[in-house]
From TrEMBL:
<dbReference type="Pfam" id="PF02775">
    <property type="entry name" value="TPP_enzyme_C"/>
</dbReference>
<dbReference type="InterPro" id="IPR012000">
    <property type="entry name" value="Thiamin_PyroP_enz_cen_dom"/>
</dbReference>
<keyword id="KW-0285">Flavoprotein</keyword>
<comment type="pathway">
    <text>Amino-acid biosynthesis; L-valine biosynthesis; L-valine from pyruvate: step 1/4.</text>
</comment>
<keyword id="KW-0786">Thiamine pyrophosphate</keyword>
<keyword id="KW-0100">Branched-chain amino acid biosynthesis</keyword>
<dbReference type="GO" id="GO:0030976">
    <property type="term" value="F:thiamine pyrophosphate binding"/>
</dbReference>
<keyword id="KW-0274">FAD</keyword>
<dbReference type="Pfam" id="PF00205">
    <property type="entry name" value="TPP_enzyme_M"/>
</dbReference>
<dbReference type="InterPro" id="IPR012001">
    <property type="entry name" value="Thiamin_PyroP_enz_TPP-bd_dom"/>
</dbReference>
<protein>
    <recommendedName>
        <fullName>Acetolactate synthase</fullName>
        <ecNumber>2.2.1.6</ecNumber>
    </recommendedName>
</protein>
<dbReference type="GO" id="GO:0050660">
    <property type="term" value="F:flavin adenine dinucleotide binding"/>
</dbReference>
<keyword id="KW-0028">Amino-acid biosynthesis</keyword>
<dbReference type="Pfam" id="PF02776">
    <property type="entry name" value="TPP_enzyme_N"/>
</dbReference>
<comment type="pathway">
    <text>Amino-acid biosynthesis; L-isoleucine biosynthesis; L-isoleucine from 2-oxobutanoate: step 1/4.</text>
</comment>
<keyword id="KW-0479">Metal-binding</keyword>
<dbReference type="InterPro" id="IPR039368">
    <property type="entry name" value="AHAS_TPP"/>
</dbReference>
Length: 570
């Protein structure tokens, strides 16, 4: 250990204390975590740090999903802590979830002491190597004197450029080493660059293409939300008169009540949005990476587009999936701010009339019922009663798509969902993080009966801390999205999808100390939902829905966007 002399303004403290002070210096409001042997010095330091807020989740995966929900809903960096070995590996799914969706997280893991590394010591795992493909950057702290700098750099890297998770792995002995504490306040990262400055020539070329187009369409993705550029997009759209289709992660980035919004496009996209893309002569992707759920059959995607433009912060995304004719690299907020100084109305009058006809001819629809609760009805009810003002988190499955289709998002950072990885078990812990980060907003967690059982243990912390999340379970007693694919693509050969042995969710909620409510028909549905909204604490509401209800429209794998199955009659 290095001997050093402290000045009167410095303190001689342990690595654990350095870590906690560093997190507070970065403005961290809450850390989600789970202790274990190799992070006990860190947890011991928390006892003497009253300003440090920590929430003990019931599983490490719950901790990282909660940190993720916090980050997505606030725009700040989410933080979680876990011990070495299984504690660290239990975070892997959450790290991959954040990485795929460009979510800024700082993940702190313990490790075995440096003197036994590489000996297969108890609970040793090389988490750096395990997570290398799914982190933006990783640090192994071998000297406590590096820790202040590493913490400061980690937050900077996570929340600049294309955002993403950064991992800090700290051996146990380092957390107990002492140093004269000096807060880090500068970042010098050789070779690392955040967002490049927009090139005016690139945007000028796009503006010229817009002037020449007659059927332009904008695809707005999650990058619009992450760049806090919704207002710039709204201004750009209203100036140019170009209609907007949003991706799943882009929902809320452009208001759903705006006349220029077409809806979500893609695999379960609406008719008007998909047909707009297929008939566009100019396609402009803003913060969307042209993933396969958006494009579907690549060689049939946007076949009439004379030019495809792509605005993105990450040069690696340009041309990766779809050939790009016009690229604008930079922070979307800055790119659109520049564009708005020169943008003019495009000649889209006839085009907008055609798209309006698409909306009228083929709106979202479902067959309602007075005897059973249709899931679409539940989402419409939630949307109407919250006026589109709530933060909505979802798990992954049919309920996720019904939410995307039937909830009307008005604001960015209002939909928290796992897009790229499609992680079951994500929705409910993410809602906890979102509520911690947004205590004055209503947070509704919408789950299927499958995903809810992957995270139900986190109801304990809702009860203990009185985190008033409204938990919705759409219970169809089946793995619905898997069933739908087996029905349509595997000739109804249903395999391993029966969830009829699931627990009584109302009793399960009550066992954790949370009010539980259930509805089996429409009349009960409205009554229990109103009761949930009027309840000050956390509530679980189970809506029993039909097993055979499917999500439409749907584009089958291997087919282009304009070959949609619109409903049961097809």
């Amino acid at each position: 250990m290095t001997n050093e002399t402290t000045t009167p303004s410095e303190e001689y403290i342990t690595g654990s204390e350095v870590l906690l002070r560093g997190l507070l210096q970065e403005g961290v409001e809450c850390v989600f975590g789970y202790p274990g042997g190799n992070v006990l010095y860190i947890y011991d330091a928390m006892v003497h740090q009253p300003d440090f807020k920590h929430i003990l989740t019931r599983h490490e995966q719950g901790a990282i999903h909660a940190a993720d929900g916090y980050a997505r809903s606030t725009g700040k960096v989410g933080v979680c802590i876990a011990t070495s070995g299984p504690g660290a590996t239990n975070l892997v799914t959450g790290i991959a979830t954040a990485y795929m969706d460009s979510v800024p997280l700082v993940i702190i893991t313990g490790n075995v002491s440096t003197n036994v590394m590489g000996t297969d010591a108890f609970q040793e795992a090389d988490i750096i190597s395990i997570t290398m493909p799914i982190t933006k950057h990783s640090y192994m702290v071998r000297d406590v004197h590096d820790l202040p700098r590493i913490i400061h750099e980690a937050f900077y890297i996570a929340n600049t450029g294309r955002k993403g998770p950064v991992l800090i792995d700290i051996p146990k002995d380092v957390t107990n080493q002492r140093m004269a504490y000096r807060p880090a306040d500068t970042v010098r990262l050789r070779g690392y660059h955040g967002a490049p400055e927009p090139n005016p020539a690139e945007m000028d070329a796009l503006l010229q293409a817009i002037a020449e187009a007659r059927k332009p369409v904008i695809i707005a993705g999650g990058g619009v939300v992450y760049a806090n550029s919704s207002q710039e997009l709204i201004k750009f759209v209203h100036t140019t008169r170009i209609p907007v289709a949003t991706t799943l992660l882009g929902l809320g980035g452009f208001p759903s009540d705006d006349e220029m919004w077409l809806g979500m496009l893609g695999h379960h996209g609406v008719y008007a949005a998909n047909m707009a893309v297929q008939n566009a002569d100019l396609l402009i992707s803003i913060g969307s990476r042209f993933d396969d759920r958006v494009t579907m059959k690549l060689d049939g995607f946007a076949p009439l587009a004379k030019r495809i433009a792509h605005i993105d912060i990450d040069p690696a995304e340009i041309g990766k999936n779809v050939k790009t004719d016009l690229a604008c690299i930079g922070d979307i907020k800055n790119v659109l701010a520049y564009a708005n100084t020169k943008a003019q109305a495009a000649q889209t009058g006839t085009w907008l009339e055609q798209l309006q006809e698409y909306k009228v001819q083929h709106p979202l629809r479902y067959t309602d019922s007075d005897t059973v609760i249709k899931p679409q009805y539940v989402l419409e009810m939630i949307s109407e009663t919250t006026q589109g003002e709530a933060i909505i988190t979802t798990d992954v499955g049919q309920h996720q798509m019904w939410t995307a289709q039937f909830y009307r998002f008005k604001h960015p950072r209002s939909l928290i969902t796992s897009g790229g990885l499609g992680t079951m078990g994500f929705g409910f812990p993410a809602a906890i993080g979102a509520k911690v980060g947004n205590p004055d907003r209503l947070v509704v967690s919408i789950n299927g009966d499958g995903g809810m059982q992957m995270c139900a243990q986190e109801m304990a912390i809702c009860a203990i801390h009185q985190i008033p999340v409204k938990i919705v379970v759409l219970n169809n007693q089946v793995l619905g999205m898997v069933k739908q694919q087996q029905e349509l693509m595997y000739e109804r050969r249903y395999s391993q999808i029966d969830l009829s042995g699931s627990p009584d969710f109302v009793k399960l909620a009550e066992a954790y100390g949370i009010k539980g409510l259930r509805a089996t028909n429409k009349d009960e549905a409205s009554k229990v939902w109103l009761e949930a909204l009027q309840t000050t604490g956390p509530v679980l509401v189970e809506f029993v829905i039909p097993t055979n209800e499917n999500v439409y429209p749907m584009v089958l794998a291997g087919t282009p966007l304009d070959q949609m199955i619109l409903g049961y009659d097809e």
